[in-house]
């Protein structure tokens, strides 16, 4: 999950989603069936009415006025937060510390919410339920990996970075080794993040297009430009507070959908009983074979290394460490982040069981009611909750919020890394704080536009993405 859960887990899901295979067999899907997420086709073969868009069945309820209003309100509030911190806040974003670390005096709650939003992407919210839907609950044991990651990060990494008070995490590599290693580390981070952001935006945009009928190529740049606007102007404070807002929407949308769906199917006991009957409830598969897709060992402990890699030294995480006024508050922030991620992962996993319990006697993919598995959750939302005005809009606002928070964190972090590691050392003389802040805003906007352009060619990035995931691994 960059997290997807976390950056690494998200790219694993993306790699699986980029292989477009068709499910075969009976309408009942057993846990040994081919991965449903493999049907997420990002290529030209996807059945669609518009490029890159496979529409949901026409008999489903579509977005109404209130749904569009809720979604638009999320974008408007995000933009207004950026305007406030750029022009009306007491502390303007005119210094490096303000732009990258929020003046190093930020509160625990907004930063914690920002971390949760940054490392739970739309890929997680859309992909994890499909994973559970097909393969059962073994993946749920990733909660152990998340807990171990938080402990390791708080004990070993947080004290080091907080003591050094570096502008970028890659400065540590220069202190420990030399400048060449620092530049290599930051280069790998920039490349992998540039490849990740278009994917993390594209997949929720695809889901939005499916449930609304709005052209994918229209909604994507519109939403991304809002994100670029508030991230470039407002700096870290705008990113953190919009993330906090978007986290609330993300939790709210997911939980309301789960509650309505659970009531509709007959209760939690019905969900659990139907899942048990299909042998989907499994938490302790102790098979040591590395060829088995999900076991307790490779999920609970193997995933730990992916999480610790993409959390502990990630520039976005380090910036939030240093945004805290004390190391104790940074530890509290990390604890809240851990709990929040575990909750949203659990909600997503339960959603997979809920979708299965709802359609246990007639799988929507094998019966061709929907074209591909990426439509499972959007289909479920419109099918089960579409009769409630505004609820589909709230859900899609939550999914897009997860994407925007990941994008804003990536843009802000890359702006800092590019300036500190590549531009600042090449400038003659001392650079004023105001000039440095302005240059980072320009860099942020430029790489944001680049990422928007990359979204339009994301269908052809499958091979590159398989390389992107390992790029960060040497950094820990």
TrEMBL record:
It is a multi-pass membrane protein. InterPro entries: Na/Glc_symporter_sf (IPR038377), Na/solute_symporter (IPR001734), Sodium:Solute_Symporter_SSF (IPR051163). GO terms for molecular function: symporter activity. It is found in: Cell membrane. This is Sodium-coupled monocarboxylate transporter 1. Its main location: membrane. Gene3D superfamilies: Sodium/glucose cotransporter (1.20.1730.10). Pfam families: SSF (PF00474). The keyword Cell membrane applies. Keywords: Cell membrane, Ion transport, Membrane, Sodium, Sodium transport, Transmembrane, Transmembrane helix, Transport. One of its GO terms (cellular component) is plasma membrane. One of its GO terms (biological process) is sodium ion transport. NCBIfam families: sss. Belongs to the sodium:solute symporter (SSF) (TC 2.A.21) family.
């Amino acid at each position: 999950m960059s997290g997807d859960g976390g950056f690494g887990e998200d790219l694993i899901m993306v790699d699986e989603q980029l292989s477009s295979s068709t499910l075969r067999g009976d309408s009942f899907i057993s846990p040994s069936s081919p991965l449903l997420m493999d049907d997420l086709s990002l290529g030209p073969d996807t059945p669609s009415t518009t490029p890159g868009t496979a529409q949901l069945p026409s008999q489903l309820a579509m977005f109404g006025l209130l749904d569009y209003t809720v979604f638009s309100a999320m974008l408007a509030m995000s933009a207004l937060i950026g305007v406030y911190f750029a022009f009306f806040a007491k502390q303007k974003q005119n210094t490096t510390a303000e732009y990258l670390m929020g003046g190093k005096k930020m509160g625990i709650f907004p930063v914690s919410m920002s971390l949760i939003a940054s490392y739970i992407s739309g890929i997680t919210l859309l992909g994890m339920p499909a994973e559970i839907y097909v393969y059962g609950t073994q993946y749920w044991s990733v909660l152990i990996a998340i807990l171990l990651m938080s402990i390791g990060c708080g004990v070993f990494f947080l004290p080091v970075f907080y003591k050094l008070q570096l502008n970028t995490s890659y400065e540590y590599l220069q202190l420990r080794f030399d400048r060449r290693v620092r530049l290599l580390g930051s280069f790998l981070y920039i490349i992998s993040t540039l490849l990740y952001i278009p994917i993390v935006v594209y997949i929720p945009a695809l889901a939005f297009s499916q449930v609304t009928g709005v052209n994918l190529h229209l909604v994507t740049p519109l939403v991304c430009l809002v994100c670029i606007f508030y991230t470039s102007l407002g700096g870290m404070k705008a990113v953190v507070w919009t993330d906090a807002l978007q986290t609330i929407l993300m939790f709210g949308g997911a939980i309301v959908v789960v509650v309505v769906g659970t009531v509709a199917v007959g209760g939690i006991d019905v969900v659990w009983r139907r899942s048990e009957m299909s042998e989907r409830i499994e938490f302790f598969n102790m098979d040591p074979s590395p060829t088995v897709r999900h076991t307790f060992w490779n999920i609970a402990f193997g995933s730990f290394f992916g999480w610790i890699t993409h959390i502990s030294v990630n520039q976005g995480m380090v910036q939030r460490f240093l945004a805290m006024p004390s190391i104790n508050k940074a530890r509290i922030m990390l604890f809240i982040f851990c709990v929040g991620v575990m909750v949203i992962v659990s909600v997503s996993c339960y959603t997979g069981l809920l979708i299965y319990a709802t359609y246990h006697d007639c799988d929507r993919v094998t019966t061709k009611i929907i074209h591909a598995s990426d439509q499972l959750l959007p289909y479920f939302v419109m099918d089960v909750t579409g009769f409630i005005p505004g609820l589909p809009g709230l859900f899609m606002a939550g999914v897009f919020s997860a994407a925007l928070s990941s994008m804003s964190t990536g843009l802000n972090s890359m702006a800092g890394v590019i300036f500190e590691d590549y531009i600042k050392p090449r400038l003659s003389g001392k650079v004023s704080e105001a000039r440095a802040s302005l240059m980072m805003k320009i860099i942020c906007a430029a790489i944001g536009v680049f990422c928007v352009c990359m979204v339009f060619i994301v269908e052809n990035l499958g091979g590159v993405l398989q390389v992107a995931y390992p790029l960060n691994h040497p950094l820990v």
